[in-house]
Write a structure and sequence with these properties.
Layout (H helix, E strand, L loop, with lengths): L7 E2 L3 E3 L6 E3 L6 E3 L6 E3 L5 E3 L10 E3 L6 E3 L14 E3 L6 E3 L6 E3 L6 E3 L6 E3 L6 E3 L6 E3 L6 E5 L3 E4 L2 E4 L4 E5 L3 E5 L6 E6 L9 E5 L6 E3 L6 E3 L6 E3 L6 E3 L9 E4 L6 E3 L5 E4 L13 E5 L6 E3 L22 E4 L7 E4 L6 E8 L2 E10 L9 E9 L14 E3 L1
């Protein structure tokens, strides 16, 4: 394409030509349309800029400069000979950059920017600020830069680590400096796995995972995550951190399975049947010094306070010792719900409990030994809120189940 010998200066609406243009916006709010050539565009206000290169191998260079800009790279597709890439640079300001079709390079610059690569194998660089980055389809390179940067993805199964995001389409994004992620599954039975993601160890690193439709398996990161199942029968595992876990809207007989893991977690079941476990079911200290909140939210729910191997929340503090002890808060124990415990009814006591604004029935395990305590003591492992001890019976098989 021939070079346009006359630079284009404008104010307001600016239209490029079919030649290779140099286009300069004004300090005002401009709407710049590039045209079909290999264009170089500079905005200098709060601009809307679109690179329109429908010819294979054509590429635009777009510089937003100052102001909060909206920049579109255009829908061109690379060919195998001319590996052309749009370069979109936001500059200063809080910019929105959309690569659209083709293999694009997006650089946010200074400010809190939003970058979306679209289709193609794109490169996204957030640069300074707290940026939002969406690779889209293709094998993308995504670098958040400085600040607290969030990765976005949707449409199926994903596995997230600190260095990669692998999709159900066998596409792999390469990640650098990503502190948080927001991932939505598709309409099928998805696996959203962020169990190896730590956000580089930055305080506040977290993921938000939403399963959407289908029977999903969701695994949180080491941070304080928000995990949601959506419709279908889901299995959700919080991992480390103080997580919020929501089953969604399952109305099937098969229960949703919610497992909090390490940390003080909030577990909220669906309107159907749920199985809620606040602790890490594999580790040695199951519920040690953590307070989990378990809400069944209707249906026939099972609140798990032990298994065949361990009594949960057994951190060795006797009743009224004054120490901070771990336990599960059961907020809505109703007819049809059960509490699952290790052993037999003779191993437990039900005692009225009121402390720190929490009242109801305390479930205490009668333990022969403790961590430096007296030879025998009552260990608080759960509180059934707003329910009196006289309304519960450890021998009532409709209320308690022993394994």
């Amino acid at each position: 394409m021939a070079k346009n010998p006359n630079p284009i200066f404008g104010n307001g609406f600016i239209q490029g030509t079919s030649l290779d243009d140099d286009i300069f916006g004004s300090l005002d709010i401009d709407d710049i349309r590039a045209g079909a050539g290999n264009d170089i565009i500079w905005g200098d206000g709060r601009d809307s800029i679109t690179g329109l290169s429908p010819i294979s191998g054509k590429a635009d260079r777009i510089y937003g400069e100052d102001g909060d800009d909206v920049i579109y790279g255009g829908n061109e597709t690379e060919d195998s000979i001319n590996q052309a890439k749009d370069l979109l640079y936001g500059g200063a300001g809080n910019d929105y950059l959309f690569g659209e079709g083709g293999h694009d390079v997006l650089v946010g610059g200074i400010g809190d920017d939003s970058l979306n690569g679209g289709t193609g194998n794109d490169e996204l660089y957030g640069d300074e600020g707290n940026d939002s980055l969406t690779g889209g389809r293709g094998n993308d390179i995504i670098d958040g830069g400085s600040g607290y940067d969030t990765l976005y993805a949707s449409g199926g199964s994903f596995t997230l680590t600190n260095s990669q995001l692998v999709s159900i389409y066998q596409e792999t994004d390469t990640l650098t400096s990503i502190e948080a992620a927001f991932i939505i599954g598709g309409g099928g039975n998805d696996i959203l796995d962020a169990s190896a993601f730590t956000g580089g160890g930055l305080a506040g690193a977290r993921v938000t995972l939403f399963g959407s439709d289908g029977n999903d398996t969701i695994k949180g990161s080491s941070g304080n995550d928000n995990l949601q199942g959506g419709s279908g029968t889901d299995q959700i595992f919080g991992g480390a951190g103080n997580d919020e876990i929501y089953a969604g809207s399952n109305t099937q007989l098969t229960p949703d399975i919610l497992v909090g893991g390490f940390g003080s977690d909030l577990l909220v079941g669906s309107g159907g049947n749920n199985r809620l476990t606040g602790v890490d079911i594999i580790g040695l200290n199951r519920g040690f010094a953590e307070v989990d909140t378990l809400t069944g939210n209707g249906g026939n729910d099972v609140f798990v306070l032990g298994d065949t191997n361990a009594i949960y929340y057994n951190d060795g503090y006797m009743r009224a010792s004054g120490a901070i002890e771990g336990f599960a808060k059961i907020t809505d124990f109703n007819s049809g719900d059960k509490i699952e415990l290790k052993g037999a009814s003779s191993n437990y006591s039900l005692i009225s409990y009121s402390s720190n604004g929490i009242s109801g029935t305390g479930i205490y395990a009668r333990l022969a030994t403790g961590m430096g305590m007296m030879p025998t003591h009552n260990e608080l492992i759960g509180v059934v809120q707003n329910v009196a001890p006289t309304a519960l019976s450890l021998t009532n098989t409709n209320q308690f189940n022993y394994v």
